[in-house]
Specification:
11 helices; 4-stranded mixed sheet; 338 residues; 7-stranded mixed sheet; alpha/beta
Length: 338
């Protein structure tokens, strides 16, 4: 009763704060409920995406079963950071996917501050374990992804942690899913149904497919095409990690569906690992993604008469050391492709 009497006789100025505090508590409860609901919805969306990815991707034995050894034949020490091998095939409908037209190692440092994409030209003339000297592209034809991994590990003296392979059709679908990408072209080309201009180009999926396939009209053939592929991968990666994609459930779902429908990964690369790695890279900016061409000294001809790219042996050793020791920033400062 005393409380009732006090509240009745209290000045209006004294009573309002009490009323305001009561509404504040109720407001906070409502906000908390909405936040909880949003978290639950987000959690449900994550579960939905995880199930979609798990249902789409294919797992295969893409890694060799033997311990990696370097050029000196000694076991490779543990890497700092993570190395992902990305293999892309340009097999057309009706063809068997026996060619690896895209060979890229994506290095993610331990601090997740950058991504370095190293393109290996398919005509790079190297030693393939058990096969002798040949183009690096032949390793995939001889023994699939495991032999290509073994070849790169031996060449560089590193461990490749995971492998992902797709085809160029997957590139096309991913591009359309995010509404197109803006890609920088070092040189112009005529693709027939559209023109690539030197500088920035906004490409849809069909145009992006033509962009990454072109090599005959480019100044350095497959080398130039490799740089185009790196530029495209960078553009697609940045678009995918952008706020407009990450925060749009419909766009994100379309992209993940397109990205995983033609995707095969090694057995150790599970959905949780892929999701956590993507989240860890969400703050990357354009300047944090660097693309590099594996070092070579020029062009030549193999004993069999094939056109080849000649390896820069000291440069390849420096690249391997940088990858193994997580020093790619230092390497990129002097070796990055302009």
């Amino acid at each position: 009763m005393l409380d009732d009497f006090a509240s009745e006789d209290a000045p209006r100025a004294d009573r309002r704060p009490k009323k305001k505090r009561g509404w504040g508590r109720r407001f906070l409860i409502i906000v908390a409920a909405l936040v909880a609901l949003a978290v639950a919805a987000a959690g449900g969306f994550v579960v939905f995406l995880d199930r979609k990815v798990a249902g789409n991707i294919t797992h295969e034995n893409l890694l060799p079963t033997t311990q990696p050894t370097g050029p000196d034949g000694k076991p490779v020490p543990t890497n700092a950071g993570q190395n992902y091998l990305i293999v892309g095939s340009d097999a057309r409908p009706g063809e068997t996917a026996s060619r690896s037209d895209v060979i890229v190692i994506a290095h993610v440092p331990e601090d997740k501050s950058a991504v370095q994409l190293i393109h290996f030209p398919r005509d790079l003339y190297i030693t393939i374990p058990g096969r002798g000297k040949d183009k690096i592209n032949a390793a995939y034809a001889y023994g699939g992804a495991p032999l290509l991994v073994d070849t790169l590990q031996t060449l560089l003296g590193i461990k490749i942690d995971h492998v992902a392979k797709t085809d160029f059709e997957g590139f096309k679908n991913m591009t359309d899913a995010v509404g197109g990408v803006r890609v920088y072209a070092e040189e112009a080309s005529d693709e027939g149904f559209f023109q690539v201009r030197e500088g920035w180009n906004d490409l849809n999926g069909t145009e992006a497919l033509a962009f990454v396939r072109e090599r005959k009209t480019l100044s350095e053939g497959d080398i130039s095409r490799g740089r185009r592929q790196q530029a495209f991968i960078k553009a697609l990666m940045l678009k995918t990690l952008s706020r407009e994609v990450i925060t749009n459930p419909i766009t994100l779902t379309k992209f993940i569906d397109a990205a995983t429908s033609n995707l095969t990964v090694d057995n150790a690369l599970d959905v949780g690992t892929m999701r956590s790695e993507a989240i860890s890279l969400r703050n990357l900016r354009s300047g944090d993604v660097v693309f590099i061409t594996a070092p070579f000294t020029g062009f030549g001809t193999s004993p069999g008469g094939a056109s080849i790219d000649i390896v820069d042996e000291p440069g390849m050793k420096a690249l391997g050391d940088a990858l193994r020791n997580d020093k790619m920033d230092d390497y990129a400062d002097v070796s990055v492709t302009p």
